[in-house]
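Appendix B, Record 12. Input sequence as logged:
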Amino acid sequence: MEFKTKTRNTSVAILRRNYQNKNSGKVTASKKEIQERFDYLDWKDQKKILLDFLQSGKTDRVWASRQLIKYWDPCFEPIVKELWETLHEEWLAWSIIRFFPKDYLKQHLESLSEDRNYYFLCLRLSDDEDFHIDESKMNEIDCLNIMSKSGRTVTDEYVKKKFFSLVSKLCTGDYNWDPNAKWPTTYFCSEIPNVMEIQMIRTVIKKIETLCKNDLDLYYFFCNWNREVYRDIENSEDFRILQSLPFSQENIESRKQAIAKQYYYHHLDSQYKFKGDNPDFQYPLQYYQPNGKKIGNSQEDDVLPF
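Logged structural output:
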């Protein structure tokens, strides 16, 4: 019986040479072998490989850029800088935001600020007193995170503004309402969605401990406001009709959420509502039949807004 001997590992130097030689016929196989071994190689070999890949095609640059977050070294700064200023590829921005000097970030703030990148820029720059944070580029939770991590002064009114702005966007569909956010089972209307159980809201509440130095008064303020909404829902004609109409299970869930959104929205101060009339919140639930049509309305396409 003949036994095949295991092929010896090709040296890293040969793999790099085959990878660099686009006419070798071994580029793809060498690249795969390099990537599989990469985490276990010596640092001197890792640096050479990353430089090779950064000077290659887009797919290989993406792979190398992801490795830079873990294996960053100042030796990469010149080529990353050149690539960024030439190509402006998103994955290059990640290591720039994390490792480049702050002066460079400020000089290229606009080009580096796309999408989620602005939040991470703020994490780097927010402790500079001269850096202005544009909160319109972040959601409410990101704003609170930046304030918390930078140690900037935060008032109760600031936290309230972020909390109620978030509730408004949950009600109007800018953010998704977690279907599993229900009232505690000890409440009578436990099947009605509870905004305080939505993960985004829970995250805001947790920030109070850090931002407001254990100010329980603010926490109780939000809880009491939430109870007021609950009492109005519990005593509403909308909730009574919901229990009596023969909705299907699917329709019941949509109407439960409609009730919650309507009542939470109407309990907001005017500054958190749309300017002018908002048709989505014009009609309480009792104006709807089980099929979703408005009672007394002749338009066939008028349905429950949520």
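Residues 153-306 form one domain.
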